[in-house]
Amino acid sequence: MRTSVAIIGAGPAGLVLSQLLARQGIDSVVLESRSRAHVEQRQRAGILEHGTAQLLRDSGAGHRMDQESLVHNGIELRFAGEGHRIDFAELTGRSVLVYAQTEVVRDLIELRLAAGGQLLFEAPATEITGIHSAEPAVRFRQDGAEHVLTADVVVAADGYHGIGRASIPADALRTWERDYPFAWLGVTAAVPPSTEELIYCHSPRGFALHSMRSLETSRLYLQVPPGADPSAWSDERIWHELDLRFAKSGWKLDSGPIVEQSVTPMRSFVAEPMRHGQLFLAGDAAHIVPPTGAKGLNLAVADVTVLADALSRWYTSGDTAGLDSYSATALRRVWRAQHFSYFMTTLLHVDPTADDYARRLQLAHLDYVASSHAAATSLAENYTGLPLAR
Ligand code: FAD
Ligand code: DHB
């Protein structure tokens, strides 16, 4: 089997890349280890930056998004029992969309398959060969048989645990990493959101986030200890804890049946460079941010936008400049998002190892962000997304 661009992973990075390439007349094959139903149902991100939404629209994948997403012009920062609005529209002229990753993935899969795109599900990639040759290849399994996909380039969009990054010799990569002393318990609840905009809440009991999936479905997150057992959290305990953390006079949290729950570790990670020979890394395969600030999916889309432009330039004119600068261009945005995600995470969570002085400083920092036009503008600019450098 042969294609131009072999893509490993049908998450947002792999799917957006195959869609952008198809628009440029460049063929690709996407190998995905899981089933279509699994990738379409995996609960994850919920917020699309202004530029991510525009990119999806421009690539022809924005039709349902524009009908069903919710436009959000701000968020609430809640701490010390009071709410403070960060008005994105006023501070930056931009907004974000609430549109779940599951929906983005569904839309892209439908679009690619309808156009005759090659997405192979339940087809795990097992090995990448010939990385330094003009004909790299990916070995994969499907229906109990071994296959080989040869290509001009291989893009590993296979997430943090994929084989792409692991195929690069350790001495050719530099990595940076931080683990946080907390995790998120995320729940989806069949109850209308108790708020019009997202609430990022700091309380002495820990961080809580009120998000949503639609006007009928709430999505909520609680800071919990790393490795917390989701089964130790009954519905009653979850709603009680959320009530305590979000407490604000005159405001009430509506509860309802919890339909899904899981625990996510919090990690920051970057691998540099994002290219080795003819193998390119994109999205979570190259970098992870803690989810506070909603950057992971948006960064994955930004990477492949840069990569699709570079590949298109190469295929149309033989010019390798875009491919040669891909890693440096993508990493500039990656590190900005690393800092913002770290900033939001440390601003809002309770660090069990912090001393009293650090905790008091944290409140002073929250107060500054909530009351300074300059600080709020910086938060709003990063949250809604900086322009894409190509
Ligand atoms: P993935 O989505 O991980 O896709 C990689 C794909 O590769 C997977 O489908 C996997 O099955 C496949 N794969 C792996 N190995 C192989 C193999 N060997 N062969 C074939 N296929 C393989 N981001 C935001 O922007 N906003 C948010 O609000 C947000 N909230 C989040 C909340 C939670 C609870 C979590 C967990 C994450 C959140 N994120 C958020 C992060 C976001 O979900 C990820 O950054 C995003 O999924 C990255 O996309 P990706 O395509 O790079 O990787
Ligand atoms: C969601 C997740 C986030 O990490 C975030 O910062 C905002 C919203 C969500 O899943 O809805």
TrEMBL record:
Residues 2-340 form the FAD-binding domain. Pfam families: FAD_binding_3 (PF01494). One of its GO terms (molecular function) is FAD binding. It comes from the Bacteria. Keywords: FAD, Flavoprotein, Monooxygenase, Oxidoreductase. The keyword Iron-sulfur does not apply. InterPro entries: FAD-bd, FAD/NAD-bd_sf, RIFMO-like. The lineage of its organism: Bacteria, Bacillati, Actinomycetota, Actinomycetes, Pseudonocardiales. This is p-hydroxybenzoate 3-monooxygenase.
